[in-house]
Amino acid sequence: MAGARKRTYNSPHRQQQAAATRQAILEAAERLFMRDGYPATTMEAIANEAGVSLKTVYLPFSTKSGLLRAVWDLRLKGDQSDAPVVDSDWFREVINENDPIRKLQLNARGSRLVKSRIGGMLAVIRGAAEIDADCRELWDLIQSDFHDLQAIVVESIHRSGALRPGLTAHHGTDILWTLNHPDVWMLLVEQRGWSPASYETWLAEVSCSQLLGSATA
Q: Could you give the CA distance from residue 71 to residue 81 in angstroms, rounded to a whole number?
């Protein structure tokens, strides 16, 4: 019919297929990055591992570093959501907790849960940062994001008056960031063989001893 508009066809099935393909690419990339390392893993190898064409890999991610960042985002958040960590249920629980000891225990639990998902990728990104500028930018972003999140936790303790006497929120943030830094997880869990549960217990205990006043801790 003359003048008829061409309808836009938006198939839920097609959307599901696209999401499944994206997930397959991310999982294939993660397997190869962790098995072979970032430098040795090619986009062609990822396409073969995922069972898709090379073009299908390049279209949504553009570069290998872009694909690495997407894998990181997926493992950090635990799903395909674009919501930042600060809006996650577990972090909201930390901030909304009034008891400072329980707050730091919840923070340690969240750290353990998140790092259990991302622990393997931390070493990949750290190594990639030494040879790729985009990956270095990602590694710097990871560290600054962790610092910002710990600052929110410490500020909430500071507002309640529970910080150790003489400790500023600024220095308290640096302490909690250091304790919760990805390097510490890699040293204790990946290198020294600590269980994630042991890491969580240690982080909670040392966070309380370093940050809280003696009457509270």
A: 13
Cα radius of gyration (the chain): 21
DSSP string computed for 88-148: SHHHHHHHH--SHHHHHHHHHHHHHHHHHHHHHHHHHHHHHTTT-HHHHHHHHHHHHHHHH
For 102, the 3-state DSSP assignment is helix
Phi, psi of 192 (to 5 degrees): -95, -5
CA 153 to chain centre: 17
User: From the centroid of its chain, how far is CA 206?
Assistant: 22
Assessment of whether the complete model's pTM goes beyond 0.90? no
Do the beta carbons of residue 163 and residue 172 sit within 8 Å?
yes
d(CA 124, CA 97): 34
Q: What's the pLDDT tens digit per position in 38-68?
A: 999 999 999 999 999 999 999 999 999 999 9
What is the residue type of 108?
A
Rounded to whole angstroms, the Cα distance separating 180 from 150 reads 8
- Euclidean distance between CA atoms 86 and 138, whole angstroms: 18
CA distance to 13, 28, 44, 158, per residue, from 21 (Å): 12, 10, 15, 46
Tokens 């997407």 label which residue? 70
Report how far apart, in Å, the C-alpha atoms of 126 and of each of 14, 60, 170 are: 36, 24, 26
- For the segment 7-19, what is each residue's pLDDT rounded down to a tens digit? 555 577 788 888 8
Cα separation values, 104 from 64, 77, 131, 164, 203, Å: 37, 20, 36, 14, 9
Separation of first and last alpha carbons in the chain: 78
